[in-house]
Design a protein that fits this description.
binds magnesium ion; binds adenosine-5'-triphosphate; 10 strands
């Protein structure tokens, strides 16, 4: 082992985004280490989706520096390397699970092997022939996730992938994220459930478009003096949780 750390998967410097008439990200700077699961946490409306959209190159009015896997965010060459799971389900409800995946695989010029592998990873092989509309919410979320896994992307940007799932499924998905990172992928996973921070290697905490902390879950607990991550967040934003 060389002991050298790989370069960060993402480097953002003074990232600012204007949406409509308002500035919604105010010059945030951060790095996302490669081969880890980084959580993007913060309350509704703080700018998580906006930051992710900037990363994958679909957000307008972005300024500052944003480098993704060594290239400028949004470069065409990154398309097969970066997978984006938007917050809204982005699958076809009147197609079967397998048809959905074949469709997305064809866009990436991938064959049946990739479809089978993605189904296997989210444990949907047994439901491959079912129409998506007739699946449960959690099963549909996994179809969506499977589409993001196609082709072994190096960076996965997952916007609230566990929302609405039961604790067992959530736990399975977090384990899968850990496995993907163990195999070398970099994951950025958003959530507004502070407790999910526990499952991340590192956490970025956003509040009102500004980054208020970047730390490991243990580090956050240490700095704020509490294991309760909801409480930790409140303490970081200025004692609103104090009696
Ligand atoms: N299309 C848009 N036009 C103008 N403003 C927008 C648009 N989309 C989002 N915003 C605003 O940008 C800010 C950040 O929104 P964003 O969707 O990034 O938040 P979020 O942290 O992902 O929230 P949530 O947890 O609810 O998904 C919010 O104030 C929101 O109202
Ligand atoms: Mg969002």
């Amino acid at each position: 082992m060389s002991g050298l750390r790989p370069p960060p998967a993402v480097e953002a410097e003074d990232l600012t985004v204007v949406r409509g008439a308002a500035e919604v990200l105010h010059g945030v700077s951060f790095q996302i280490p490669a081969g880890q699961v980084t959580g993007l946490l913060g309350p509704s409306g703080c700018g998580k989706t906006t930051l992710m959209r900037a990363l994958v190159g679909v957000q307008r009015n972005v300024s500052g520096t944003l480098r993704v896997l060594g290239s400028e965010a949004g470069r065409a060459g990154l398309r097969s390397e970066v997978a984006y799971l938007p917050q809204a389900l982005s699958i076809y409800s009147d197609l079967t699970v397998r048809e959905n995946l074949r469709y997305f695989a064809s866009i990436l010029c991938l064959g049946e092997e990739a479809v089978l592998e993605a189904l296997r990873r989210v444990r949907l092989t047994g439901l491959a022939g079912r129409i998506v509309r007739e699946l449960s919410g959690g099963e549909q979320a996994r179809v969506s996730l499977a589409s993001a896994l196609l082709g072994d992307p190096r960076l996965l940007v997952l916007d609230e992938p566990t929302v609405g799932l039961d604790p067992v499924l959530r736990s399975q998905l977090w384990r899968l994220f850990g496995e993907l990172a163990g195999a070398g992928a970099t994951l950025l996973v958003s959530s507004h459930v502070m407790d999910e921070a526990r499952r991340c290697d590192e956490v970025l905490l956003l509040r009102d478009g500004s980054l208020i902390a970047r730390d490991t879950p243990a580090g956050l607990a240490r700095t704020t003096g509490t294991e309760d991550l909801d409480e930790a967040f409140l303490r970081l934003i200025g004692g609103e949780g104090s009696p």
